[in-house]
Amino acid sequence: MALTDQDLSTVHEYGIDPADEKYKTLLTDLQGNILKGHGREHSVHLFLKFKPDQVDAAKKWIQEFTRKYVTSAKQQADEAELYRKYKAKGSLFANFFLSRFGYEYLEVKPFRTPKDQPFRFGMKNDAVRNLMGDPVVEEWEPGYQDEIHALVLMADDDVVDLLQEVNRMSQKLLKIADIVNREDGFVLRNEKNQPIEHFGYVDGVSQPLFLKRDILKDKYNNCEFEKWDSRASLSLVLAKDPNGTTEDSYGSYLVYRKLEQNVRAFHEEVRQLAEKLGVDNDLAGAMTVGRFKDGTPVTRSSIPASSDTNSFGFDDDTQGTKCPFHSHVRKTNPRGDTGRVGSSVNYEQALETERGHRIARRGISYGENDITRESSSGSGLLFLCFQGNIENQFNFMQASWANQNNFVNVNTGPDPIIGQQAGTHKWPTGWGESTTTECKFKLWVHMKGGEYFFAPSLSFLKTLSPVGEELTPETLDTYSTMCFDGKNDYLVISEAASLRVQNYTVEVWLKPGDPKEAWQGVIGKPGRNFNIWLNNAGYVHHRFHTPAGWNAGAPNTPNGSIQWNQWYHLAITNDGTTAKTYINGELKAEGPTGGNLIVNHTPLYIGRSLDGDSSRYFYGNMAEARLWNYARSEAEIKEKMNQRLTGYESGLEGYWLLDERYGNIVPDCTPNANSGIYYS
User: Fold this and answer.
1) Cys-Cys with 672: which of 163, 421, 498, 620 at CB 3.0–4.6 Å?
2) pTM score, whole prediction
3) Contact at 8 Å (CB) between 509 and 568?
4) Residue 168 burial (CB < 10 Å; 0-12/13-18/19+)?
């Protein structure tokens, strides 16, 4: 059943649980990083402009990139759970975003293009640029001045692995697109290992929360959201994808801005402000940002108190004598300030409207990674944020709050961090003092370029091209495939309802090595279900269990059907009456089954026999495995055996691309999202 508007707009008490079947389709089709940051330490951002007359090739590349790299919200949640339980390293993380110009290039009809107005205009549009107070495009960095079609984000904790994978991926990419700009980002941390930005202040503290685990953690730490409720509805960040193929296909609008920080000048400005106000540098900086460098809210303390809590409001600082109205955290999240001004009709209504302007920030630093060096240029923040409506969220926040001199009081001044217009600021002469003084605080964050993007659903990206990647013995040797050592390597997919097939087709591309043992397990379910083995005589053995017993007369393929160190496509079918084995699309064996398969509730194993005998592991390479819920015909097998699938084909219950990946997670490319764990 599809999610309703109420499901999306309701702020759930405990958020949404990724393990809840209700949200499985949504999270499987939604890109990761939207509901929760990807959490990797390093990232690479590639801005693409596809080459003319390469539309079909570009569609095919996007489809292949998505299948191999792009991380779904479901996969992200599953990997996080595996890390918490087993410290299992997650896979390389990736996103793929399209600009309005990218949709046009891919020949998507206008009525199928996401409808947000700023997104359709683009960030270079004069009306948008003037509203935001941004510099003229000619002053942007050259890489942002060109038309941008797409943005690729790849991230990992290991920077060497990340850069190597980006280089490998780029080999095919450069045939169909120009990389007009590249940004390399990293998480900057202080001596306490807290994430910070280049001015030295703890970053990413105040975020809207959507997921159960995050909400329960925040609730525990913040006394039942007593001061500030950080929970948010899904509609705050999600927008329906008009091109998705499921009922719950959603995406999100991404705002990307490169913000250069003049660290040396900012710290000098803070020092001069401290002298004018007669306070120390720490307090002067906290009045500017709204928090001390350690994250302590200045509205709660006049000194750093090692408290980066988000449980605070401005109810006890309604005059801005502790946290000035122009401070960055108050400008961008006024926490009820708009409901206290004279023009407000209803406080609760004003607060709810404020909360609707929030964004999900996903920024990362670039440039100098030594916080002791105060750079004047070349360092800053790669600012990314997700929202369901750019006009009502980021653009409103920037233009109507951060840039405005008179928000929420007259002559309070613009945001001294991200404000794009100069002005005079009104400062308290001391913490909690009602007397004020006016002085300018120059703006030391400069916008160097950016663009608006949409994060399409995976079902759109995976079905963009009708022609899949070619799979043949010749091409497979050029791909990165999963290697099994014949000793203890295998893949296990946890038991799930979608894997309890009675009639079935199992397909595997494999290249067996010289046999180390008499038998090699290929794929199957433990207990009395089905199993596929290779014998050292070079034949395929299909074993299954029905009321008539094991195998029930299904023959093996002839000896020598499989030669070592060669690629083969195996397809094994069972319709409850006849079992058949195909090699490279040709029928090699068939026999009666004796009845329908006995279905059990057990995991699916790939690369290992079912009895746990360590001598029955597969030795060689595999490229992919497919599980269907019916017996496919010979014609159907031949039609698709040499192509990558989309993952959304009718009857496809499991589809695992057995490429060697980062970490030990192999995602299921179907909406069932039954990811596998690779053991070695």
Assistant:
1) 498
2) 0.89
3) yes
4) exposed
576, 578, 583, 587 alpha-carbon torsion, rounded to 10°: -150
Q: Look at the block and give the residue holding tokens 């020092």.
A: 271
> Which sign does the torsion angle of CA 324, 330, 332, 336 carry?
negative
Give the number of other CB atoms < 10 A from CB of residue 238. Answer: 24
**Which residue did the predictor score with more confidence, 534 or 599?**
534
- Predicted confidence at residue 405, as pLDDT, reads 92
- 3-state DSSP call for residue 564? coil
Task: Read off the tokens for 257.
Answer: 């801005």
Return the H-helix or E-strand segment holding 445.
strand 445-455
Q: What is the pLDDT confidence band of residue 243, given thresholds at 50, 70 and 90?
A: very high
Kind of pairing, strands 364-366 and 380-387? antiparallel
The residues near 639 (Cβ < 8 Å, ≥ 6 apart) are: none
Rounded CA separation 103/166 (Å): 24
Cα separation of 617 and 611, whole Å? 11
How far apart, in whole angstroms, are the C-alpha atoms of residue 409 and residue 224?
A: 31
> What CA–CA distances, in Å, run from 250 to 50, 203, 244?
25, 28, 7
The span from the CA of 203 to the CA of 291, in Å, is 10
Please, which residues bridge with residue 260 across strands?
Answer: 380, 446
Rounded CA separation 642/473 (Å): 9
Q: What whole-number distance in Å separates Cα of residue 341 and Cα of residue 318?
A: 10
DSSP code per residue over 142-156: HHHHS---EEEEEEE
Higher pLDDT pick, 261 / 424:
261
d(CA 364, CA 384): 8
CA 492, CA 515: separation in Å to the nearest integer? 22
Q: Which of 466, 642, 659 is nearest to 60 (CA)?
A: 466
**Among candidate residues 576, 534, 536, 575, the one with its CA nearest the CA of residue 556:** 534
State which of 21-35, 69-83, 458-472, 509-523 shows the largest mean pLDDT.
21-35
Question: Rounded CA gap, 676 and 680, in Å?
Answer: 13
CA dist 525 and 610 (Å) reads 7
| Backbone dihedral angles phi then psi of residue 95, each to the nearest 5 degrees | -125, 160
What is the residue-wise DSSP string for 27-44? HHHSBTTSSS----SEEE
Q: Please report, as a single letter, which amino acid is at residue 471.
A: L
CA atoms 408, 411, 415, 419: torsion sign: positive
Parallel/antiparallel/unpaired status of strands 195-196 and 188-189:
antiparallel
Concatenating the DSSP letter of every residue in 175-192 gives TTEEEEEEEEEE-EE-TT
- The DSSP call for residue 63 is H
Residue 474 neighbours by CB under 8 Å, 6+ apart: none
Percent of the chain residues past pLDDT 70, beyond the cut: 98
CB proximity list for 218: less than 8 A, separation 6 or greater: 209, 225, 230, 310
Q: Are 657 and 624 in contact (CB under 8 A)?
A: yes
Find out whether the peptide bond into 408 is cis, omega within 30 degrees of 0: yes
Q: Write b or e for each residue in 652-669: b if 16 or more Cβ atoms lie within 10 A of its Cβ, otherwise e.
A: bbbbbbbbebbbbbbbbb
Q: Which of 266, 516, 542 is nearest to 416 (CA)?
A: 266
CA distance 166 to 44: 8
Q: Is the pLDDT of residue 54 over 90?
A: yes
Q: What token pair was written down for 462?
A: 């995976």
d(CA 531, CA 521): 8
